[in-house]
Design brief:
signal, about 10% helix, mainly beta, 4-stranded antiparallel β-sheet, 8 helices, Beta-propeller domain-containing protein, 6-stranded antiparallel β-sheet
Length: about 675
């Protein structure tokens, strides 16, 4: 552990009242000293120039009753999309739940689950456990262009199809291979799969959705697929049902026996071309659009190969029919499909013709999220109720800024009918960050509070610091900002209409990912940095937030040097956590690449055994897997650890490595 002491303000300043905070002044950057302890530092920046939130109104959605309205709306959007240069918009997929539990009736030892954001909401991942078996996704090796027509895609040169590899795993750190199963041919790119009762549910499509979220051609000629697989006999896996939808997958979630799919679709009308400065081409496009019918503009669906008519969608699609939307239209449909896994043939679907670039979901609601372009810095969200028989539109909310580009899935959460967001806006060559609380009431959204405000004026982050990591819990918001050093802010949100900052702890470096261990214990994973902000090593920190106003880092570890990397910094599935039942213990593992000045990379996994009471402590282990790893980024990013009691089962490329926690060198390896 390396400690970085800072000059601390008097303890009275840690407990400033709301009135006192009006008169707070900026505290200069601290210098490194020679003491061996870190102290809490209350960094207060009043930020009088922070732009106040503007009242944008709400671009609410209206359910159409006439299919001709939807037809005209889509045609207007297509005409505009093909005649204007599409603005660049980036997509970041929002995430879900974080839980690790023990099923005492099924297994004799505790087991870990997929690391998620929202408790009780499962996420698709490449490794799942079910009934003493570990199921591992094998990605296909296939060559295909990003955009292609149906006939071209069918002729793509596929080398190896996607498949699922099966192993029996045991708490004594042994395992046994059981075979593999090839997935549906439409699952060229697999987002991941779920485990439910005696089935696996693979979710994906023909391509990975990374680019061109506002480009109409991107959402054409795609296919979303869900394949259910019967694994009651792991040695003889049998196919179940298959659902396909025209378009591309945005994301999916599972709550109990219900799966939610969010997909996007743009009509592909033959002959449409970009016509930015070509009047003749515009006339040809207008003729093609005039001849098109509503059925040409809607996605098709199949269940077990049987076509399902999309006519109901035309009667029930939601459109933003206010302001500029009325004339402009929109060219892409977002489709919400709700599947009862106990009765999958009776799935329901809703659609919204509105821009989105991500989702958030808890057990009760789905949010469609639209981030701003570079000019307007305006965002909106649309909430759909999932407690009814089919997804039901609730309300929309507009706000300044965006959820940011770094792990935005952690910046939004609904709890006890209060929506909390941490937003960022780039104004006047500076980053402005806000915490927004919005009440979810029976008749719609109602804004409760925005921080900073007149009563709580201190800004979130020092000048020119961007948000690096966020973790929202039931009663607090933890926010990391960084330019040269790392303030970790804690905001009390127990009273949603009066949030206030309780802590601002500063140290060198920053955390990109904040992992909740208990209500008061947090792990930060990021980078150490010098006083100029240059990253020098991976950094793992253990924070104790049990006393308001006295947040502190109790341990800091540094690993490797410049060029070191941990996939969990951008994909929380890469971390495995397990709260030990009936003991104050939490175990954690995540893969890393360690380097020195970008050279001599070594790949392995970090293991942390955390004692949570009476005071937080930890023990760390470095388990090397591959020396001189070179640029083996993909293998490390796809690596997953699974805990079965004291056993660690590590998926590393096409190899399963099992070892006891107490003796990582006693490894059993199987390659397939």
């Amino acid at each position: 552990m390396r400690a970085f002491p800072f000059i601390a303000l008097p303890i009275a300043s840690l407990l400033l009242s709301a009135c006192a905070r009006h008169d707070a002044t900026e505290v200069p950057d601290a210098e490194l000293g020679g003491a061996d302890t870190q102290q809490v530092q209350r960094m207060i920046f009043p930020g009088p120039d922070v732009p106040p939130p503007r009242d944008l109104g709400v671009s609410s959605l209206t359910q159409v009753s006439d299919p001709h309205t939807l037809e005209a709306f889509l045609k207007a959007g297509l005409a505009r999309a093909y005649s204007e240069h599409p603005p660049f918009m980036i997509m970041r997929t929002m995430g879900m739940a974080e839980t690790a539990t023990m099923d005492s009736a099924a297994v004799p030892a505790p087991v870990s689950e997929t690391n998620t954001i929202e408790q009780g909401v499962d996420e698709a991942d490449r490794v799942k456990y079910l009934n003493n078996h570990l199921y591992i996704l094998n990605e296909p090796r296939v060559f295909y262009p990003w955009r292609m027509a149906e006939e071209d895609w069918r002729a793509a040169r596929e080398i190896t199809p996607a498949s699922i590899q099966t192993f029996t795993v045991r708490p004594d750190a042994t395992h046994e291979p059981r075979g593999s199963y090839s997935l549906h041919p439409d699952l060229v790119w697999v987002n991941g799969f779920y485990a439910y009762e005696d089935s696996l549910l693979a979710v994906g499509g023909r391509r990975m959705p990374y680019h061109g979220w506002n480009e109409p051609l991107f959402w054409q000629n795609g296919k979303v697929a869900v394949e259910a697989i019967d694994v009651r006999q792991p040695d003889r896996i049998q196919p179940g049902w298959t659902l396909t939808i025209d378009g591309d997958l945005v994301d999916s979630r599972r709550v109990d026996n219900y799966m939610v799919l969010v997909s996007r679709f743009s009509p592909a009308l033959k002959g449409l071309t970009h016509t930015w400065n070509d009047d003749e081409a515009k006339a040809r496009n207008a003729e093609i659009l005039t001849q098109a019918t509503i059925h040409d503009l809607l996605p098709s669906m199949t269940f077990n190969g049987q076509s399902i008519a999309p006519a109901a969608m035309a009667q029930g699609c939601y459109l933003p029919l206010e302001g500029e939307w009325t004339e402009a239209g929109y060219h892409t449909l977002t489709q919400i499909t709700l599947i009862d896994l106990n009765n999958p043939e009776q799935f329901t679907t809703e659609c919204a013709a509105t821009p989105i670039n991500g989702i958030y979901q808890n057990r009760e609601a789905l949010y469609l999220l639209d981030s701003p372009d570079w000019n307007s810095q305006r965002s909106q969200l649309h909430r759909f109720d999932l407690t009814t028989a089919r997804p039901t539109y609730f309300d929309s909310y507009d706000y300044e800024g965006a959820l940011g580009w770094n792990n935005p899935e952690f910046r939004i959460r609904e709890h006890n009918h209060v929506l909390t967001m941490v937003t960022t806006e780039y104004v006047n060559d500076d980053w402005w960050h806000r915490l927004i609380n919005v009440a979810v009431e029976p008749d719609g959204f109602r804004e409760l509070a925005v921080l900073p405000n007149d009563r709580e004026p201190e800004r979130i982050g020092k000048p020119r610091e961007n948000v690096q990591g966020v973790r929202l819990t039931d009663d607090r918001a933890f926010i990391v900002t960084f330019e040269r050093t790392d303030p970790l802010y804690v905001i009390d949100i127990t009273q949603p209409d009066a949030p206030y900052m309780t802590d601002a702890y500063e140290e060198t470096g920053f955390s990109d990912y904040l992992h909740r261990v208990t209500d008061d214990i947090l792990v930060g994973i990021g980078f150490q940095a010098d006083l100029e902000g240059v990253q020098t090593a991976l950094k793992v920190s253990l924070y104790d937030a049990s006393v308001a106003g006295d947040l502190r880092s109790v341990y800091d570890d540094e690993w490797g040097g410049r060029g070191s990397f941990a996939p969990v910094l951008h994909n929380h599935h890469a971390l495995t956590g397990l709260a030990w039942p009936n003991e104050p213990r939490y175990r954690m593992a995540f893969p890393v690449l360690l380097a020195e000045n970008w050279q001599e990379r070594q790949a392995g996994v970090l293991l942390y055994d955390i004692t949570t009471a009476p005071a937080p402590t930890w023990d760390a282990q470095w388990v090397p897997i591959k020396a001189r790893a070179g640029d083996d980024w993909t293998t490390v990013q796809d690596a997953r650890a699974f805990f079965y009691g004291d056993a660690v089962h590590l998926v590393w490329g096409q190899e399963l490595i099992s070892f006891p926690w107490q003796n990582p060198s006693a490894q059993r390896r199987t390659t397939w």
